[in-house]
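QUALITY CONTROL LOG
STEP: pairwise intake check
CHECKER ROLE: data steward
CRITERIA: each record must contain a sequence immediately followed by its structure tokens, with no blank fields

ENTRY 1 OF 2
RESULT FIELD BELOW
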Amino acid sequence: MSFQFSPVARNAALDAIETAIGTSPKLQLRSGTLPANTAATDAGNLLVEIALPSDWLETAATGVKTIKGVWTGTGTAAAGGGTNAGHFRIKNNAGTVTHVQGTITITGGGGDMELDNPNIAQNQSVTVTTFTLTAGGA
């Protein structure tokens, strides 16, 4: 049997995720395959690291929470002349604990996170175009 929650409960649960992760977390865009879980060691090369804003997600509404502001970063030396981003990890503001991870695609590609260009080169500007947390049953 699965539970059903009210819109108020779903929104509160999503807002609690942002609170638990904390202010100004680090977003890492990495090459390679998504690790098995958030406790697993980082995989692939770090292509971009973005220090997200203090308040980095919109307040949940209708069971959905989306990016707040513009999330933009610059390709690292490890990106070289162009490397495909395979996954992302959102870590605490010290960059030491992974709280959320998922797949990356180009805008409209249906990944957990979408970028303006997932083929990242050194010094290239990269912008997250879509990232949404959706509560079950929303």
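ENTRY 2 OF 2
RESULT FIELD BELOW
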Amino acid sequence: MTPGAWQELTKAAFLEIYGDCFEHSPHFAARLYDLGPFSDWAEVDRAVRSVVFQAPQPEQEALIQAHPRLGQQSPMSALSSQEQRRSGLASLDPERAAELQQLTRTYEEKFGFPFVLCVHGKQTKELLESVRERLNQTQEAEFQLALEEICCIALQRLKARSAVTRS
């Protein structure tokens, strides 16, 4: 299904298909629907960024908090589980798993929210390097980076779901 075909869906049908593309936050998907119709993925990308970056700060904070801790077996959405499994996070050797858990724990202690990264297409080494690098960010910069990553995650999920959904 293309973004242009989304306009043929009711809002309820759109949310049934795409509501989980924003981690445990279907109200963001509802806002995305309201910004349509879209002619291409570039418009969708701009709209995703709009709904995320124009949301009130408490909603942004809740959206960040809704994301799972990378590499941990804590409960997470089916989409997050698939993404982490594909990136190799579900099968890390014990040493790498301990390193990732320590880094993400340090990150969360410093910033007060989980480390969020669009893992699509990234290898374990890149993930670990990203956490290390982002530990050097300021609180404000890291908050913005987390939102950027959420936009990337949502767009990847929308595209993947559209690729398997027939209009």
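INTAKE CHECK: passed for both entries
DESCRIPTIVE NOTE, ENTRY 2: The chain has a mean pLDDT of 90.
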